[in-house]
Amino acid sequence: MKIGVLALQSAFAEHEKVLEQLGAECIELRQARNLSEPYDALVLPGGESTVQGKLLKELGMFDTIKSQIENSMPVLATCAGAILLAETIDGQPEQYFGTIPMCIRRNAYGRQLGSFHTEAPVAVIGTVPMTFIRAPYIASVGDGVEVLAVVEERIVGVKYKNQMAFSFHPELDPDVRIHKAFLKMI
Ligand code: GLN
User: Fold this and answer.
1) CATH code for the domain in which residue 119 is found
2) Between the CA of residue 47 and those of 8, 134, 149, what are the distances in Å?
3) What is the pLDDT of residues 108-157, one digit of tens each?
4) Cβ(171)–Cβ(14) under 8 Å?
5) Known catalytic residue at 15
6) Closest ligand 1 atom to the C-alpha of 78?
7) Domain total for the chain?
């Protein structure tokens, strides 16, 4: 099983470590030509969604990845990655891939705008540790979106068709069950 990990910025190496530990092979997607190598699923890591969105377009990677997602390639998105998937970004006129009908609010989770750590249940998986770093939360979801996790009455995890998106960073904690569930989708 080969996973394409978007490797433009920030926390992608940690995803690779977890996925390799679970027996998957990873390839780093750094430029357009990497997108023609075969891979079975996609990871969109955290970072800064505005930077990633801009780079994806400048590097000519945006349209190919969007159509891979629309053509049902399994996707695991964390934090900034979840922002890239949202159909609407609160207070921001543009969106990126827009492949999950949900409205996301950037840098707005809970009382703490910085980082914090908690534990909460994720549907089917159970209670997992959750590290939030300038995280977004999901303000509303559309038809067909399954809510997987809620913290302080805010939605922090969803599944929609082939896509799983989380506000927090499962790759930064030793619990690998979210990545395991992702590999099961493939
Ligand atoms: N604050 C970032 C953004 O708005 C997301 C932070 C993260 O990925 N840890 O894109």
Assistant:
1) 3.40.50.880
2) 9, 10, 21
3) 765 556 789 999 999 999 999 999 999 999 999 999 999 999 998 999 99
4) yes
5) no
6) 8
7) 1
